[in-house]
Amino acid sequence: MKDKVALREEGSAATRIVVGMATCGIAAGARPVLNTFVEEVSKAGLLDKVMVTQTGCIGICQYEPVVEVYTPSGKVTYVKVTPEKAKRIVEEHIKGGKVITEYTIGNK
Amino acid sequence: MKELSLNILDIAMNSVGAGAKNIAIALDEDDDSLRIVIEDDGCGMTKEQVEKLSDPFYTTRTTRKVGLGVPLFKLAAEQTGGSLDIRSVPVSESEKEHGTKVTAVFNKKHIDHTPLGDLVSTMVTLIQGNPDIDFLFLHTVNGKSVRLSTAEMRKELGDVPLSNGEVLNWIKEYLTEQYKEIERL
Question: Which tens digit of pLDDT belongs to each residue from B100-124?
């Protein structure tokens, strides 16, 4: 297994997907959302470019699961994310570079 | 929380916040009862802090990592006629033996017993987010066990981080296969 896996430097990724995993996030369904991001990024072969990480409570518990996407062009906050929305975020935002405005916090 | 596996994830996150290097998650069940133990070697808590944990309104900025998690887990146990117990040794008391042990007991036959849910996802999530912590997972059902030790995996993996996508996939399949196996026996 060791030989099969390409090594990469932690933190070298240009894009970061950060999922809130405090009590509020977990209770609202963040676990399947996080695992969907990990699987979809892996499937897309983007593991060396995109980093999926976890964070605590950022204070907007009513909007959980909250996902922040950091790219060189800035930060986008997606709210009430589901595994289905996560798939679309990877497809359209991460791969396609297009923010899905209807899922963002400014739209709620 | 709809699944106890989500409570386990949440409580283990407290261990992560406490700076644990090792986190052991053990479940032991028979037809009637279930015992869940989450033990870490983190910074621990003082007696006063432990007493305040079951108060859902005890959340200050400094203890924000605790919040509602423990009260929710306690409620899940007590609503089945079970119990929650927290033992902790703060680092100020012992430099070597510090850490926290959370034990919850459930009466599985009680109508208000929450299902365990997806434990495999909980373990994958914990390892994905904390590849430098060693997790020991042991789930025993009527004497048959599912087990995972990241310390043992680490020896095989060398420099490959446990958060690697392929490694996480392997962990998921490895645990899922073990669950299928104990169901068959």
Answer: 999 999 999 999 999 999 999 999 9
- Kindly list the averaged pLDDT for each block of 10 residues, start to end, along chain B of length 185: 96 95 98 98 93 75 66 96 97 94 98 97 97 98 97 93 92 97 87
Distance, in Å, from the CA atom of A101 to the CA atom of A107, rounded to the nearest integer, reads 7
Q: How far is Cα B102 from Cα B139, in angstroms, rounded to an integer?
A: 16
Tokens 């261990």 belong to residue: B15
Q: How far is B103 from chain A (nearest CA, A)?
A: 19
Q: Is B160 on the interface with A (CB under 8 A)?
A: yes
Q: Tell me, what's the ipTM?
A: 0.90
Burial (CB count within 10 angstroms: exposed 0-12, middle 13-18, buried 19+), residue A94: buried
Architecture category of domain A15-107 in CATH: 3-Layer(aba) Sandwich (3.40)
- Per the structure, the complete domain to which residue B158 belongs is given by 4-184
